[in-house]
Amino acid sequence: DAGVIQSPRHEVTEMGQEVTLRCKPISGHDYLFWYRQTMMRGLELLIYFNNNVPIDDSGMPEDRFSAKMPNASFSTLKIQPSEPRDSAVYFCASQGESSGNTIYFGEGSWLTVV
Amino acid sequence: LAKTTQPISMDSYEGQEVNITCSHNNIATNDYITWYQQFPSQGPRFIIQGYKTKVTNEVASLFIPADRKSSTLSLPRVSLSDTAVYYCLVGGFLTGTASKLTFGTGTRLQVTL
Known about the structure:
Distance between the termini of chain A: 36 Å
Strand content of chain B: over 45%
Number of helices of chain A: 0
Strand order of the largest sheet of chain B: 1-9-8-3-4
Number of strands of chain A: 11
Oligomer: heterodimer
Helix content of chain A: under 10%
Number of strands of chain B: 9
Largest interface: A-B, 26 and 23 residues
Shape of chain B: globular
Number of helices of chain B: 0
Radius of gyration of chain A: 13 Å
Order of helices and strands of chain B: EEEEEEEEE
Order of helices and strands of chain A: EEEEEEEEEEE
Shape of chain A: globular
Helix content of chain B: under 10%
Strand content of chain A: over 45%
Structural class of chain A: mainly beta
Distance between the termini of chain B: 39 Å
């Protein structure tokens, strides 16, 4: 399996622009997670889905952030409008019965908002 | 909430055994203990997972006492390539909420010659 695939790997955008991060989970996994990592706050769970349904979005920082999972093989995390404080690495991860309680992470999307 | 506490950093020489302990005093009955390794510019990578007693795989051992309020990751004979941040994660998906799936601050291991 190719693992969790994220795109883009790196993005630099101007403040106020819309940013869309994409994720393809491991096939067969029914949980999908979006994490954000910064030096100051470490790894934060933003939202997670089970069977394409958002279960808990209490970690989403504010209304500028939204996440969707239209099908089992694709999810997006959108920031609109983006702000410099959104600069971080955004990780997507997935987990399924085949992996037990293990979460598998993608390589991350490095976002810089200038 | 099964909050975890780990040392912020550790130093070791190459070839030594390294033990990193994680405290999780209010671990729930259904919670598993999982350790992840993260290199710069990469996502966290699964190392080992356990529920109780001892678990060993090709890269590490995990020791969990009977009360499960702590766990120790043991890395035998570390090399320079083991320099990374190590995270302890406590939780279980069958009973968990998002708050159980939060990583702690991690332990930054620096291995030198």
